[in-house]
Amino acid sequence: MKLSGFCLFRIGGIEVVFDYSWFVILALAIYTMSLPEVTQQYPGQNFWAVGAIAAALFFASALVHVLAHSFVAVKNGVRITSVRPLIFGGVERASTDPQNGRQEFLIAVAGPAASMALGMFFLGVYSFSLVSPGAKPAGGIALGLALVNILLLAAFNLIPGFPLDGGRILRAFLWDRWNDMARATRVVSQLGNGFAVFLIIFGILLFLTVKGLILGLWLIFTGLIMKQSAIGNYQGIMLKRALGGVQIRQIMTENIVAVDWLLSIQELVQSYIYKHQFTHFPVFNRDEFIGMVSLDGVKAVSKDLWVFKQVRDIMTPLELVPCLQPTDDAAEALSRMVSGDIGRMPVVEDGRLMGIVTRRDIMNFFKIKSDLGIA
Length: 375
Known about the structure:
The chain has 375 residues and is an alpha+beta fold. It contains 13 helices and ten strands. The strands form three sheets. The protein has a four-stranded mixed beta sheet. The chain has a four-stranded mixed beta sheet with strand order 5-6-7-8.
């Protein structure tokens, strides 16, 4: 299951990504609230609205959990670029890593601690609803959220396997003992993957029973997300390890196919895009590098005007083009390209174009090191 979503908002410079999996959670929450055993307890209530509110507060709880990790990480010098709340807490994307096991431990325990505190708050709301009859529907939601925060986001998260916080805590201890983060990550990722498979199998068995239908769906869904995250976390660590100390100058392509700024769009398409099958080209005014032209820029112009319009009319000026330097770290460059959804970036030094690097170039370099057993 591919994790994808869109930016919801930013907080403290950190991008909050809304994962599409929350739409499935919303559907499950609404379906759960529509079950006869639930509607009998809250007659006259709109189960669609109640289910939506419960799902929204579930998302907010997961967001608090993952932001607790992020704020502690930032305090310890780790740069967090985005967070993605998920059913079991969430994942953070960082441009730098913790420097040692102690920092990793502090970051890992922050999430469960925040969720435990939030769970106690919702228990307080539930207790209040017991002595206030008018607050009974809110009390039911509060009890559910208390259980979610205490049992799922706090207790369940302490299971020692990636991407759960228990796996990160175990990795912190193993990292401190072995002084090898990659080895520790491999062990906890395998544990996390194994536990995810167990959840999926157990969920399928429950799904086949009448009474375990809903719980089975939740377990299957959680297991699928955990399995994908466990694999992705390990691959990300190995990628950073392989690219550690590698500069862009070692990966970039120096033989550049450039275009003149006075070239017509028609000629750009016929002689460059079709021939070289690139989507981006550097643009020159004589010997001066002045910008980039892309396939998207061509598509924005009517085909009837291609013969009249020139590259200079659709190019992106150099001052607006994200650039790299030859000495930039390859891992950080890849992170910039992924977060900005950039496929190709020019490599510039003192205003001179030194080369072009693509995400594919970096991944091919990683594959070669992996095949040689160096990664």
